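Sanity check

After download, print the first record. It should look like this:
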Amino acid sequence: MSESWASNPSVRAIMRANRHRDTRPELALRSAIHGMGLRFRVNARPLKSVRRTVDIVFPKVKVAVFVDGCFWHGCDEHYRPATGANSDFWHAKIAGNKSRDADTDRKLREEGWTVIRVWEHEAPEDAALRVSDTVRTRRANLADSRSKK
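Expected structure tokens:
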């Protein structure tokens, strides 16, 4: 456990067990989207100049979908700040995550992407419908612009 910032070995074990991809909310959303007949890429880097991956990507229509955990991304509804010995660390960590999320959204939008953020507590079917509507609208707009040329 050399150079770990975890307060003790059990905290470090818990932290290492947290998944960064293929979480239960991601899998549920992907299943719902797939059930609507949409196909997508998973954990892709749509902007090669940025070392950040997107959970679900529709590259042809430039739609990026993130599934954000309430704790890790500071959900206004469910996030409860840590208290105790590492509270300053956790406050800075979550603030940094939120800042990085906003920066990622900005960079994607600057390149013409539509960004959808889904909270882990959202019903997968509702979120999938939001994603499907966005993807289908973007496809229709793309087809319209091509037919006018």
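If your output differs, re-run the checksum step. Summary of this record's structure: Residues 11 and 117 are 28 Å apart (CA to CA).
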